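STRUCTURE:
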């Protein structure tokens, strides 16, 4: 995200996986004033997650919402 994106302050952004890419995305949204919730079955770097205020407890269970496709 660039620094000139507006209107994101206060939004809740859900991130699945806080690996290298997920953490970069979470940090970018955090810089824009968003609250971060996440789900990661692996143990992420808790120090980095807490530094951006990421909250695992509010993420719940991830669900995939898509229409079934035919083979």
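SEQUENCE:
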């Amino acid at each position: 995200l660039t620094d000139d994106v507006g209107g994101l302050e206060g939004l809740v952004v859900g991130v699945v996986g806080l690996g290298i890419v997920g953490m970069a995305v979470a940090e970018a949204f955090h810089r824009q004033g968003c609250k971060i919730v996440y789900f990661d079955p692996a143990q992420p770097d808790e120090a980095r997650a807490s530094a951006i205020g990421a909250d695992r407890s509010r993420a719940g269970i991830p669900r995939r919402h898509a229409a079934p496709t035919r083979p």
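REMARK: The longest strand covers residues 12-16.
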